[in-house]
Amino acid sequence: MNRIFRIFQTVKDPFGKMLVSGSFAIFTAQVTVSIGMSLGLLPIISVSLPFMSYGALSAMINAFLFGLVLSVYHKKNIIRMKKI
Predict the structure, then answer these.
(1) pLDDT digits (tens, 9 = 90+) for 35-83
(2) I need a surface site. Which of 15, 41, 72, 79 has the fewest CB within 10 A?
(3) What is the value of pTM for the model shown?
(4) Contact 46/32 with Cβ under 8 angstroms?
(5) How far apart are CA 45 and CA 66, in angstroms?
(6) CA-CA distances (angstroms) from residue 6 to 18, 20, 39, 69?
(7) Among candidates 62, 82, 75, 57, which has minimal Cα distance to 10?
């Protein structure tokens, strides 16, 4: 999650910032709820720990979000041409 936060700081594109911040929020919520359930602070619901718990759909969604963040970081220096 530290890397996602650093990517958020380096990206200048507003749409890219929204994508990265949304992915960061989803990862943070999953980790917080999962750890809170393990410690007995939160009620037990069906939320898996990202990239640790087994679940095909959850793992695919987390991999997609992480790939989206890395794609935004990869394209952060591309200057878009404006149509005249």
Answers:
(1) 999 899 989 888 888 878 777 888 888 889 999 998 988 887 766 656 6
(2) 79
(3) 0.78
(4) no
(5) 23
(6) 14, 10, 28, 11
(7) 75
